[in-house]
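Our preliminary data section would be incomplete without showing what the modeling component actually yields. Below, a chain of 315 amino acids is followed by its predicted structure, encoded as tokens that our downstream tools consume directly.
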Amino acid sequence: MDVLALTTYDEAPFLTQQIDELERRGVSIDCRSVPGHVSATESRSVTDYLRFFPEVIREGRNGYDLLHAHYGLTAPMALAQRRLPVVLTLWGSDLAGPVGPLTRVCAPRCDEVIVMTDQMRRQLDGDCEVIPFGIDLDRFRPTDRDRARNEVGWASDEYHVLFPYSPDRTVKNYPRAKRVVEAVDSRLDRPVNLQVVHGVDHETVPVYMNAADALVLTSDREGSPTAVKEALACNLPVVALDVGDVRERLDGVEPSTVSTSDTELVDGLADILRREERSNGRAAVAELSQGVTVDRVLEVYDRTLDRGVDVERFE
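Predicted structure:
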């Protein structure tokens, strides 16, 4: 099977890991990203997206079996070509955020749609398959905390709370995480450090997760946050706002907490740090192994190829 993949961010670890697993299964994937520069504080221009249309149309003539568009902003380009059936994967912010109206227009015209959560399925209000991005459980696994702390250079007699995002990504709400950790620091008898980790090789992220005492998630919105699932795979306790599928992922996980206010975040984090325990999170994400989720993606591919191009989308 030959697949043309479109994305707005071809360095997203959850995407590259899925592509790697698909290729191990014999799927040949060429990934094309929207041109232009993007960062935590800078978005692409309309011109960048317009430049992508002719590139996708040209690529669509090169003998692929299907096109897999990742993120709602790539859907218009995917639908502009008329040769290949289109699978669209939505990541979360492309449905709940500013591009949501465009996503809702394009999604029904795609041959198959994949979303991350049941909440997204309800928001889309159309036919779709819930398949969260999977986790590499061989890479993300519990290891010795003291050894991990020595490796990253964190003090062994202090608390360390992991914030695995750039502070410049406003949707992740770093100021709120900072307020929460500062409030907890004033309650406990040992220093509580907010450890901001971003821009590191993805291979080293499990080391930081095993070195930390908890992960804090204060995002304004999410789909199915990969960092939470990776933390669970490492048995790292999670303190999170009730966004995306976090409540579902943390169901039955102890110690961890889902909160709806700063007060609940502070109380939950303080309690977890006092307990100084790892969680039972790994058992909760066993169903989200990369192998299991890719099996389901391949089922979507096979179903799409069996049907062929939906000609009605061009009418």
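The radius of gyration is 20 Å. Residues 158 and 191 are 5 Å apart (CA to CA). Preliminary results of this kind motivate Aim 1 of the renewal.
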